[in-house]
Amino acid sequence: MTSTRIVVARPGQIRRLGPLAALLVPGALLLLAGFAFFVYPCDGSTCVKPTLFSYLLVLLATPTALIAGLPWFLHPLNLGIAMASSLLLWLLLGRWAARRATEDVDGTWRTFAGELAFMIAGVWGGIVVGLAIVGLWLPH
Question: How far is CA 107 from the centre of its chain?
């Protein structure tokens, strides 16, 4: 007779791997953006919607891009600053979510995902507000 053991997430594992697990979100967004931009078939003016969609996905994956001056200042320094600061932001959010998730002894990866989703909602809300401000400011 075999006994079924329930695997409980180890808080140390969540804390150690949480920052790296948070990088799955921007990685998936960048893959989807690349697919929408490079693979989706379009020609001429029909490319506007896929391009805007992929740009939005890139902004969600690199939340500090607007602060770094993208898309107005396309310079390798701006791109590097946006990528490095966004990477740091994602790692910090992952670490913070892992800490919050493991405050409870019964913390699991599902708890981590919930904490991270709450933080991501705040960051993405800020991006949407920033885009709205830019959209209202530019026409004038």
Answer: 22
